[in-house]
Amino acid sequence: xxxxxxxxxxxxxxxxxxxxxxxxxxxxxxxxxxxxxxxxxxxxxxxxxxxxxxxxxxxxxxxxxxxxxxxxxxxxxxxxxxxxxxxxxxxxxxxxxxxxxxxxxxxxxxxxxxxxxxxxxxxxxxxxxxxxxxxxxxxxxxxxxxxx
Amino acid sequence: xxxxxxxxxxxxxxxxxxxxxxxxxxxxxxxxxxxxxxxxxxxxxxxxxxxxxxxxxxxxxxxxxxxxxxxxxxxxxxxxxxxxxxxxxxxxxxxxxxxxxxxxxxxxxxxxxxxxxxxxxxxxxxxxxxxxxxxxxxxxxxxxxxxx
DNA sequence: GCGAGTAGGTTCGCTTATTGAACGAACCCA
DNA sequence: TGGGTTCGTTCAATAAGCGAACCTACTCGC
Lengths: 148, 148
What we know:
Two copies of one chain form a homodimer.
Chain A: H1 12-20, H2 25-33, H3 39-46, H4 50-62, E1 66-72, E2 77-82, H5 84-87, H6 90-103, E3 113-116, E4 125-129, E5 141-144
Chain B binds a DNA duplex through residues 1-4, 22-24, 38-40, 43, 49-55, 72, 74-78.
Protein backbone atom coordinates (compact mmCIF):
# COMPACT_ATOMS: atom_id res chain seq x y z
CA UNK A 1 0.00 0.00 0.00
CA UNK A 2 1.20 3.46 -0.78
CA UNK A 3 1.58 6.07 1.90
CA UNK A 4 -1.64 8.01 2.40
CA UNK A 5 -1.39 11.42 0.74
CA UNK A 6 -2.80 14.61 2.24
CA UNK A 7 -1.73 17.08 -0.42
CA UNK A 8 -5.26 17.65 -1.69
CA UNK A 9 -7.03 17.78 1.65
CA UNK A 10 -8.86 21.03 2.39
CA UNK A 11 -7.02 21.51 5.70
CA UNK A 12 -3.83 23.61 5.58
CA UNK A 13 -2.21 21.51 8.31
CA UNK A 14 -2.79 18.37 6.27
CA UNK A 15 -1.21 19.80 3.12
CA UNK A 16 1.82 21.08 5.00
CA UNK A 17 2.18 17.76 6.77
CA UNK A 18 2.20 15.93 3.46
CA UNK A 19 5.12 18.06 2.36
CA UNK A 20 7.31 18.36 5.43
CA UNK A 21 5.89 15.62 7.65
CA UNK A 22 8.75 13.20 7.62
CA UNK A 23 11.83 12.62 9.68
CA UNK A 24 14.32 14.39 7.43
CA UNK A 25 12.74 17.22 5.45
CA UNK A 26 12.61 19.77 8.32
CA UNK A 27 16.28 19.09 9.00
CA UNK A 28 17.20 19.46 5.34
CA UNK A 29 15.38 22.80 5.36
CA UNK A 30 17.24 23.79 8.52
CA UNK A 31 20.55 23.08 6.83
CA UNK A 32 19.53 25.13 3.81
CA UNK A 33 18.54 28.00 6.12
CA UNK A 34 21.93 27.78 7.78
CA UNK A 35 23.65 28.20 4.43
CA UNK A 36 24.51 24.63 3.46
CA UNK A 37 23.81 24.36 -0.23
CA UNK A 38 25.75 21.36 -1.49
CA UNK A 39 24.66 17.73 -1.44
CA UNK A 40 27.70 16.46 0.40
CA UNK A 41 27.63 19.27 2.97
CA UNK A 42 24.06 18.40 3.93
CA UNK A 43 24.73 14.68 3.84
CA UNK A 44 27.69 14.96 6.19
CA UNK A 45 25.97 17.42 8.50
CA UNK A 46 22.93 15.21 9.02
CA UNK A 47 24.51 11.83 8.25
CA UNK A 48 21.39 11.12 6.25
CA UNK A 49 21.47 8.16 3.82
CA UNK A 50 22.39 9.51 0.41
CA UNK A 51 19.42 7.92 -1.33
CA UNK A 52 17.05 9.53 1.18
CA UNK A 53 18.66 12.95 0.77
CA UNK A 54 18.40 12.70 -3.01
CA UNK A 55 14.70 11.82 -2.74
CA UNK A 56 13.97 14.64 -0.27
CA UNK A 57 15.75 17.25 -2.36
CA UNK A 58 13.92 16.06 -5.46
CA UNK A 59 10.59 16.49 -3.68
CA UNK A 60 11.55 19.97 -2.45
CA UNK A 61 12.55 20.93 -5.99
CA UNK A 62 9.26 19.55 -7.37
CA UNK A 63 7.37 21.64 -4.80
CA UNK A 64 9.42 24.72 -5.63
CA UNK A 65 10.71 25.14 -2.11
CA UNK A 66 14.21 24.81 -3.53
CA UNK A 67 15.91 25.28 -6.91
CA UNK A 68 18.80 23.21 -8.19
CA UNK A 69 21.39 25.53 -9.69
CA UNK A 70 24.51 24.59 -11.67
CA UNK A 71 27.35 26.66 -10.25
CA UNK A 72 29.94 25.01 -12.48
CA UNK A 73 29.68 23.39 -15.89
CA UNK A 74 32.75 21.22 -16.23
CA UNK A 75 32.67 19.14 -14.22
CA UNK A 76 28.92 19.58 -13.66
CA UNK A 77 28.28 20.71 -10.09
CA UNK A 78 25.02 21.73 -8.50
CA UNK A 79 23.80 23.46 -5.40
CA UNK A 80 20.38 23.84 -3.84
CA UNK A 81 18.98 27.27 -3.05
CA UNK A 82 15.83 28.28 -1.24
CA UNK A 83 13.07 29.98 -3.20
CA UNK A 84 10.77 32.62 -1.69
CA UNK A 85 8.37 29.83 -0.83
CA UNK A 86 11.15 27.98 0.92
CA UNK A 87 12.46 31.04 2.77
CA UNK A 88 8.97 31.85 3.97
CA UNK A 89 8.93 28.47 5.72
CA UNK A 90 11.49 29.67 8.25
CA UNK A 91 8.91 31.02 10.74
CA UNK A 92 7.45 27.52 11.01
CA UNK A 93 10.84 26.17 12.03
CA UNK A 94 11.25 29.11 14.41
CA UNK A 95 7.96 28.23 16.11
CA UNK A 96 9.08 24.61 16.36
CA UNK A 97 12.38 25.80 17.80
CA UNK A 98 10.65 27.77 20.53
CA UNK A 99 8.34 24.96 21.56
CA UNK A 100 11.16 22.44 21.53
CA UNK A 101 13.49 24.67 23.54
CA UNK A 102 10.72 25.16 26.12
CA UNK A 103 9.67 21.51 26.45
CA UNK A 104 12.26 19.08 25.14
CA UNK A 105 15.39 20.22 26.97
CA UNK A 106 16.41 20.20 30.61
CA UNK A 107 16.42 23.34 32.74
CA UNK A 108 19.61 24.65 31.12
CA UNK A 109 17.87 24.78 27.75
CA UNK A 110 19.44 23.99 24.39
CA UNK A 111 23.12 24.71 23.72
CA UNK A 112 22.19 26.93 20.78
CA UNK A 113 19.85 29.92 20.62
CA UNK A 114 18.45 32.26 18.00
CA UNK A 115 19.92 35.77 18.04
CA UNK A 116 19.21 39.02 16.32
CA UNK A 117 21.89 39.43 13.69
CA UNK A 118 22.41 43.11 14.45
CA UNK A 119 21.86 43.52 18.17
CA UNK A 120 23.04 40.06 19.19
CA UNK A 121 20.13 39.76 21.60
CA UNK A 122 18.45 36.40 22.09
CA UNK A 123 15.26 36.02 20.08
CA UNK A 124 12.33 34.03 21.50
CA UNK A 125 9.78 33.49 18.76
CA UNK A 126 6.08 33.64 19.55
CA UNK A 127 3.10 33.32 17.25
CA UNK A 128 0.66 36.25 17.20
CA UNK A 129 -2.21 37.57 15.13
CA UNK A 130 -0.81 39.78 12.39
CA UNK A 131 -3.49 42.45 12.86
CA UNK A 132 -3.98 42.64 16.60
CA UNK A 133 -0.65 41.31 17.86
CA UNK A 134 -2.53 39.05 20.26
CA UNK A 135 -0.86 35.71 21.00
CA UNK A 136 -2.36 32.82 19.09
CA UNK A 137 -3.46 30.28 21.64
CA UNK A 138 -6.11 27.66 21.48
CA UNK A 139 -8.56 29.28 23.85
CA UNK A 140 -8.99 32.36 21.68
CA UNK A 141 -9.16 30.63 18.29
CA UNK A 142 -11.80 28.70 16.43
CA UNK A 143 -12.06 27.40 12.89
CA UNK A 144 -14.59 28.86 10.50
CA UNK A 145 -15.44 29.49 6.87
CA UNK A 146 -13.68 32.35 5.13
CA UNK A 147 -15.77 35.51 4.94
CA UNK A 148 -17.86 35.66 1.77
CA UNK B 1 17.14 -0.95 9.94
CA UNK B 2 15.65 1.18 12.62
CA UNK B 3 14.65 4.74 11.94
CA UNK B 4 17.35 7.26 12.82
CA UNK B 5 16.49 9.02 16.08
CA UNK B 6 17.04 12.72 16.68
CA UNK B 7 15.63 13.00 20.16
CA UNK B 8 19.02 13.58 21.79
CA UNK B 9 20.48 15.94 19.21
CA UNK B 10 21.45 19.39 20.52
CA UNK B 11 19.31 21.16 17.90
CA UNK B 12 15.74 22.04 18.94
CA UNK B 13 14.46 21.50 15.41
CA UNK B 14 15.91 17.98 15.41
CA UNK B 15 14.26 17.02 18.69
CA UNK B 16 10.90 18.40 17.62
CA UNK B 17 11.18 16.60 14.29
CA UNK B 18 11.82 13.31 16.04
CA UNK B 19 8.57 13.75 17.92
CA UNK B 20 6.16 15.15 15.37
CA UNK B 21 8.01 14.48 12.13
CA UNK B 22 5.81 11.88 10.60
CA UNK B 23 2.79 11.88 8.36
CA UNK B 24 0.13 11.45 11.02
CA UNK B 25 1.16 12.99 14.34
CA UNK B 26 0.49 16.65 13.39
CA UNK B 27 -2.96 15.64 12.18
CA UNK B 28 -3.68 13.71 15.36
CA UNK B 29 -2.69 16.82 17.31
CA UNK B 30 -4.95 18.91 15.08
CA UNK B 31 -7.88 16.66 15.87
CA UNK B 32 -7.16 16.87 19.58
CA UNK B 33 -7.03 20.67 19.32
CA UNK B 34 -10.38 20.61 17.56
CA UNK B 35 -11.90 18.71 20.45
CA UNK B 36 -11.86 15.13 19.21
CA UNK B 37 -10.88 13.03 22.19
CA UNK B 38 -11.99 9.50 21.44
CA UNK B 39 -10.11 6.86 19.50
CA UNK B 40 -12.85 6.15 17.02
CA UNK B 41 -13.59 9.83 16.44
CA UNK B 42 -9.98 10.50 15.43
CA UNK B 43 -9.75 7.29 13.42
CA UNK B 44 -12.86 8.13 11.39
CA UNK B 45 -11.91 11.77 10.95
CA UNK B 46 -8.48 10.98 9.54
CA UNK B 47 -9.18 7.49 8.21
CA UNK B 48 -5.86 6.52 9.73
CA UNK B 49 -5.13 2.78 10.14
CA UNK B 50 -6.11 1.80 13.67
CA UNK B 51 -2.75 0.25 14.48
CA UNK B 52 -0.97 3.43 13.41
CA UNK B 53 -3.28 5.62 15.48
CA UNK B 54 -2.72 3.42 18.53
CA UNK B 55 1.06 3.70 18.09
CA UNK B 56 0.92 7.51 17.63
CA UNK B 57 -1.25 8.02 20.67
CA UNK B 58 1.02 5.80 22.72
CA UNK B 59 4.02 7.88 21.72
CA UNK B 60 2.20 11.13 22.53
CA UNK B 61 1.25 9.73 25.94
CA UNK B 62 4.86 8.63 26.55
CA UNK B 63 6.03 12.14 25.70
CA UNK B 64 3.40 13.69 27.96
CA UNK B 65 1.78 15.65 25.16
CA UNK B 66 -1.44 13.79 25.91
CA UNK B 67 -2.98 11.89 28.83
CA UNK B 68 -5.21 8.87 28.54
CA UNK B 69 -8.19 9.26 30.86
CA UNK B 70 -10.88 6.71 31.72
CA UNK B 71 -14.19 8.53 31.50
CA UNK B 72 -16.23 5.41 32.22
CA UNK B 73 -15.45 2.22 34.11
CA UNK B 74 -18.02 -0.29 32.95
CA UNK B 75 -17.56 -0.82 30.11
CA UNK B 76 -14.02 0.61 30.18
CA UNK B 77 -13.83 3.67 27.96
CA UNK B 78 -10.96 6.10 27.47
CA UNK B 79 -10.32 9.48 25.99
CA UNK B 80 -7.19 11.42 25.17
CA UNK B 81 -6.66 14.92 26.52
CA UNK B 82 -3.95 17.46 25.79
CA UNK B 83 -1.54 18.38 28.56
CA UNK B 84 -0.02 21.87 28.94
CA UNK B 85 2.91 20.65 26.84
CA UNK B 86 0.51 19.48 24.16
CA UNK B 87 -1.60 22.66 24.23
CA UNK B 88 1.53 24.77 23.92
CA UNK B 89 2.22 23.04 20.62
CA UNK B 90 -0.71 24.80 18.98
CA UNK B 91 1.32 27.86 17.84
CA UNK B 92 3.52 25.53 15.79
CA UNK B 93 0.47 24.23 13.95
CA UNK B 94 -0.78 27.81 13.58
CA UNK B 95 2.50 28.81 11.91
CA UNK B 96 2.22 25.80 9.61
CA UNK B 97 -1.36 26.77 8.86
CA UNK B 98 -0.32 30.27 7.80
CA UNK B 99 2.49 29.11 5.56
CA UNK B 100 0.34 26.42 3.99
CA UNK B 101 -2.57 28.79 3.39
CA UNK B 102 -0.18 31.24 1.70
CA UNK B 103 1.65 28.77 -0.50
CA UNK B 104 -0.21 25.48 -0.95
CA UNK B 105 -3.65 26.70 -2.07
CA UNK B 106 -4.89 28.47 -5.16
CA UNK B 107 -5.77 32.15 -5.18
CA UNK B 108 -9.05 31.55 -3.35
CA UNK B 109 -7.15 30.18 -0.37
CA UNK B 110 -8.26 27.33 1.88
CA UNK B 111 -11.95 26.68 2.56
CA UNK B 112 -11.35 27.06 6.30
CA UNK B 113 -9.77 29.90 8.26
CA UNK B 114 -8.76 30.64 11.82
CA UNK B 115 -11.00 33.14 13.62
CA UNK B 116 -10.94 34.95 16.92
CA UNK B 117 -13.46 33.20 19.13
CA UNK B 118 -14.85 36.44 20.50
CA UNK B 119 -14.67 38.96 17.69
CA UNK B 120 -15.12 36.49 14.83
CA UNK B 121 -12.39 38.25 12.89
CA UNK B 122 -10.01 36.23 10.73
CA UNK B 123 -6.67 35.55 12.41
CA UNK B 124 -3.49 35.42 10.34
CA UNK B 125 -0.69 34.05 12.49
CA UNK B 126 2.81 35.48 12.19
CA UNK B 127 5.95 34.64 14.12
CA UNK B 128 7.62 37.52 15.97
CA UNK B 129 10.26 38.10 18.61
CA UNK B 130 8.59 38.02 22.01
CA UNK B 131 10.54 41.05 23.29
CA UNK B 132 10.69 43.40 20.32
CA UNK B 133 7.67 42.25 18.30
CA UNK B 134 9.85 42.19 15.20
CA UNK B 135 8.95 39.55 12.62
CA UNK B 136 11.23 36.54 12.71
CA UNK B 137 12.69 36.16 9.26
CA UNK B 138 15.86 34.59 8.12
CA UNK B 139 17.71 37.77 7.25
CA UNK B 140 17.57 39.12 10.78
CA UNK B 141 18.37 35.91 12.65
CA UNK B 142 21.52 33.97 13.31
CA UNK B 143 22.33 31.01 15.54
CA UNK B 144 24.62 31.43 18.53
CA UNK B 145 25.54 30.12 21.94
CA UNK B 146 23.31 31.05 24.85
CA UNK B 147 24.60 33.98 26.91
CA UNK B 148 26.79 32.94 29.84
C1' DG C 1 -30.62 -15.86 27.91
C1' DC C 2 -29.29 -14.45 23.18
C1' DG C 3 -27.95 -11.72 19.45
C1' DA C 4 -26.69 -7.09 17.95
C1' DG C 5 -24.26 -2.94 18.87
C1' DT C 6 -20.37 0.02 20.62
C1' DA C 7 -15.68 1.58 22.04
C1' DG C 8 -11.03 0.75 21.93
C1' DG C 9 -8.00 -1.49 20.50
C1' DT C 10 -4.66 -5.99 18.45
C1' DT C 11 -3.34 -9.25 14.85
C1' DC C 12 -2.67 -10.55 10.16
C1' DG C 13 -0.42 -10.77 5.51
C1' DC C 14 1.18 -7.67 2.30
C1' DT C 15 3.49 -3.35 0.34
C1' DT C 16 6.44 0.53 0.77
C1' DA C 17 10.22 3.19 2.99
C1' DT C 18 14.58 3.57 5.27
C1' DT C 19 19.08 1.93 6.23
C1' DG C 20 24.47 1.58 5.54
C1' DA C 21 27.53 0.24 2.28
C1' DA C 22 29.08 -0.28 -2.23
C1' DC C 23 29.21 1.29 -6.86
C1' DG C 24 29.06 4.88 -11.01
C1' DA C 25 29.71 8.86 -13.81
C1' DA C 26 31.94 12.78 -15.08
C1' DC C 27 35.28 15.51 -14.67
C1' DC C 28 39.97 17.58 -12.48
C1' DC C 29 45.00 17.46 -11.33
C1' DA C 30 49.76 15.60 -11.00
C1' DT D 1 47.89 6.30 -15.04
C1' DG D 2 46.08 6.86 -10.72
C1' DG D 3 43.90 9.23 -7.36
C1' DG D 4 40.48 12.90 -5.71
C1' DT D 5 36.01 15.45 -5.80
C1' DT D 6 31.05 15.91 -6.34
C1' DC D 7 26.64 14.16 -6.90
C1' DG D 8 24.32 10.89 -7.00
C1' DT D 9 22.19 5.34 -7.94
C1' DT D 10 21.87 0.48 -6.68
C1' DC D 11 21.69 -3.19 -3.41
C1' DA D 12 19.79 -6.55 0.18
C1' DA D 13 18.00 -6.42 4.68
C1' DT D 14 14.99 -4.45 8.14
C1' DA D 15 11.26 -1.42 9.75
C1' DA D 16 7.06 0.97 9.16
C1' DG D 17 2.62 1.65 6.93
C1' DC D 18 -1.49 -0.36 4.86
C1' DG D 19 -6.69 -2.28 4.95
C1' DA D 20 -9.28 -5.89 6.75
C1' DA D 21 -10.51 -8.96 10.14
C1' DC D 22 -10.64 -10.14 14.73
C1' DC D 23 -10.89 -9.59 19.97
C1' DT D 24 -12.66 -7.97 24.62
C1' DA D 25 -15.81 -6.20 27.66
C1' DC D 26 -19.46 -4.51 28.35
C1' DT D 27 -24.90 -2.54 27.25
C1' DC D 28 -29.35 -2.83 25.32
C1' DG D 29 -33.62 -4.77 23.32
C1' DC D 30 -36.40 -8.64 23.14
